[in-house]
Write a sequence for this structure.
């Protein structure tokens, strides 16, 4: 085992959605440690904060990556913008560093892969991280609601944007 | 600054393989799937045979699968090796002792490379 693989730069990315949130835990841009969707039902804010805290406690990430809900290009509703602020405050209260990534930056990063739409970005992610390929939803028609699994790809896109814009932080050499 | 490796990467490998807890439990020869869940949540460590079975199932080496645990044990053993080397260095330097010291030296540099 390489001695250089002792430490790792583990990040947790959260993407709140209408019925819960998608999350992705990554160690470098090539290693997905955990991913999924957490559902919230009654008290969405309290449940989300509790579940995010459980993920932080379990994975002890170096950085929590969230979308910048107030940045240009973001079309988040008031509830989600407030929730993003609350998650950030909770994480900082627990001494976890946070990083806000704007949607424009995500689009700029994935433009290098010729992906402009959400589905194209998800397809690029599924190609780079084949374990996510079975979770890739069908392309959405205009009259269809967004598939809940899309929040996994949105969270992964946030984490990948973080790693692509900070190449020195691709810390993991955890073999696949 | 970097964070430490997780004690094990069972969850990541199971999800990558697309297997359920029940299916992994069956492969391990366990009746209860909750044991697999406990291993994944680091609430319980699998015994030696189960750990080897996980390596067979996911086709990865033990130090990759139980990375954090391996590093913890490695650190402890390296510390002991360093102490033993100091003890041997204080003894009479015959051929066998020199050979032992050379062997221990191959282990101890790991300690000095800690982040």
């Amino acid at each position: 085992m390489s001695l250089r693989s002792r430490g790792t730069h583990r990040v947790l990315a959260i993407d709140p959605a209408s019925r819960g949130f998608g999350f992705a835990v990554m160690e470098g841009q090539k290693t997905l440690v955990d991913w999924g969707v957490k559902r919230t039902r009654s008290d969405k804010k309290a449940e989300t904060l509790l579940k995010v805290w459980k993920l932080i406690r379990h994975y002890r990430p170096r950085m929590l990556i969230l979308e910048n809900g107030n940045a240009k290009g973001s079309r988040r509703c008031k509830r989600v913008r407030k929730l993003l602020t609350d998650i950030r405050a909770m994480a900082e209260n627990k001494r976890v560093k946070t990083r806000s990534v704007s949607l424009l930056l995500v689009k700029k990063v994935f433009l290098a892969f010729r992906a402009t739409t959400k589905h194209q970005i998800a397809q690029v992610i599924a190609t780079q991280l084949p374990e996510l390929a079975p979770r890739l939803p069908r392309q959405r028609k205009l009259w269809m609601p967004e598939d809940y699994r899309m929040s996994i790809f949105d969270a992964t896109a946030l984490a990948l944007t973080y790693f692509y814009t900070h190449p020195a932080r691709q810390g993991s050499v955890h073999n696949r | 600054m970097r964070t430490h490796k997780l004690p094990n990467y069972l969850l990541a490998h199971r999800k990558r393989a697309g297997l359920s807890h029940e299916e992994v439990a069956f492969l391990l020869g366990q009746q209860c799937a909750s044991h697999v869940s406990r291993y994944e949540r680091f609430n319980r460590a699998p015994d030696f045979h189960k750990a080897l079975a996980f390596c067979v199932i996911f086709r990865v080496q033990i130090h990759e699968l139980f990375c954090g645990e391996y590093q913890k044990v490695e650190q402890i053993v390296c510390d002991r090796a360093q102490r033993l080397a100091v003890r041997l260095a204080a003894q009479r330097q015959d051929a066998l002792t020199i050979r032992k010291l050379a062997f221990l030296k191959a282990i101890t540099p790991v300690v000095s490379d800690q982040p």
Observations:
- Chain B touches chain A at residues 1-6, 9, 11-12, 15-16, 18, 41-42, 60, 63-64, 67, 70-71, 74, 110, 113-115 (CB under 8 Å).
